[in-house]
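Q: Two folds, back to back.
A: First:
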Amino acid sequence: MKHPTQMDGPLFANIQRAGLFDLTVGYSPDWDIPVAEGYRCVPCPRRFLQRMSFLYHDCLASEKYDLVIIPGYARLDTNLLALAPHRQALGMRLDTAPIYPEPRWKSWCKGMVLRRFFHRFAAFHPVGSLAEQFLKGLKVSPSKIFRYPYAVDNAYLAERARHFVKGREQWLQALGIQSKAFVVLGVLKFVPRENPMELLKGFHLFHESFPDSALILVGAGPLQKAMEAHLTESKLDGAVRLVGYAKYSELPKWYAISNVFVHPAKKESWGVSVNEAMACGLPVVASSSVGSSYDLVHEGVNGYQYLTGDIKALADCLARIASRADRGRELGERSRHLINAWDFEATMKSLESALHMIRSEIAYGAAPGGVTRGQQN
């Protein structure tokens, strides 16, 4: 892994505390956040050749691990390592979402290459149903697939949100927003891929019918000037607040004082902010290009999905929630309930199942993946 994240760090610490299996995590030494604590970490060299040598000898040639999981197939270093001769059982965690159009020739070529490459792996760990669908489309055996659900620290986020919601009126007042306003929230980078302009335009349509509404955008990026110009031209300045970048510990405040969360990305293989919003008890509106919406957003149960690019559909989704005060609360409570199934415990159980399969194959004298133990694959 490149560096620890707010999702991975707490998960690894939970694995260590549970003691279900022995865990070692390899990271590039770029640690400026405290989530690399509570479990065994091995710093990897920064330079490519030194890192390759270290990873090969420590992770592959040593055969000291039952399973080595690499993060996807997009990294050159881990791809080369997987292609090197080894007897170590390899797993792959991936979040590929096969929902984006691409030329037929490209899809065919990628499929041909990946089918051969995937034979090097004993187990696969998709983060959600779309990644699992991608693997099955490439004829990966279901017996090799062990869900590695994207999870956040639900309890931490919920507790922080409960703390901040007590001061909702004061926080909104500080922003110049009335306490009775219906507050729409976006947490995203101001870049084309994350599509903040679509959220602004969808909110504009919604605001025309619900003038007692406000939009809070948490984030920063190169599109900010264009967004500010749009706000001036559309006379939305008084209803929209660009509050800048927020540290992870501050995010629950923004979820806590809002009524609905929107993820408008054009291309997002997962979108962990959907998990965060649900843990904080918010209904979610997400574009059809957000991978997590296919697993986490249940239509009319805890939110809505709209077709990417359709700002009227986005506005209509917001209107369905805002039209009844109790409706938003119901959807939010269901979000909180649904996200409980996407937790660290589910990930740990899945990893335990994968290890059980690997150890069973080793016990029967076969290397994971069907190659005789002792042969190089």
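A: Second:
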Amino acid sequence: MPLLAVPPVIPVLRSEFHLSGTEIGILTGLPIILFAAAALVGSRLVALLGVTRAVITGLALTAVGSGLRAAAPDAIGLLAATAVMGAGIAVTQPALAALVGRWLPDHIVLGTGIYTNGLIVGEILPVALFPFLFPLFGQSWRATFVLWALPIVVIALLVLALAPPEKAAAIGAGRRWWPNWPAREILRLGSVFAGASAIYFGSNAFLPGYLSETGRADLISPALTALNVGQLPASLLLIVFARYLERRVWPFVFAGVLCLACLGAIVATAGAVTVASAAVLGFAAGAAFALGLTLPPLLSAPDEVARVSAAMFTFSYTSALVVSVLSGAAWDLTSDARFAFLPIVLAALPSILLVPTMRFDRAAIGGEKERSR
């Protein structure tokens, strides 16, 4: 929720803090690099504290960072608070992937679809409700940031109270947590997930600027809402058709091709077609994102899921940050917001080109097969 509270107020932040296109790219990309760095911390916390406590720790950091952003006096303060928030979200991600593998070992795609659906609902709410909440709070972006921090506190308390107890054997400082970086499958996994992340975050970051530049600022809220709501059907379809999509290559390729087509339509238009294309792009990017989240528990032994997920998040989010910064730089260099989408277009290629080369057998990553190579 706090992550997607930013794009609707980017025009306001740009005016108040005098942000350039590159600085907007850094602001929106900073949580992504924290997702990369703190994912390793999340893997370590899972080893030390167990999955449930790692999730609670991440939620607490997210709430604190989100609340601190509302008090930011300048751009540096905003970036610092965003860093804390991004670190908190990142810590929870390897833990969530591990939860799916432990709680639903025979229904991994279904379990991933359910929690991906929750992620997407959390992303939709700040964007969809922005037109109503922003005037209600006196057009104060600070008040909206506080608003989206409050539910996180409640969620952390609910997890603390209701999560089933973990076995003592699942917690221990001796468990492995550092990723096996040379593994080819991890690099491919990271590239695929990086593409999905870059498309989603980049489109949210640069669509408002593109529409403002083309004189269609009135379409910013509808386009962002369409982009984020479009993800919801993708996660629901993943739940309904989980058994037909598991270990299949074609859904990844289809999602990548659809992303390319929609990005082309967005930069070629600035009207109703843009909003419609944003909706379909949200569906395709959401499908690619959700499918990417299924890969660590599908391809890893249960005890390896957290560290494989950490490796995937670290590599993928670092790459996504590079894409975000390159997009902002392309906008600055050309003075044309359309060029911000060029690196995002390239991010769609890994799903099309790399997934067909991946092995879909159990424990392909982090197991004995990998360590024997």
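Q: And?
A: The chain has one domain: 3-165+177-372.
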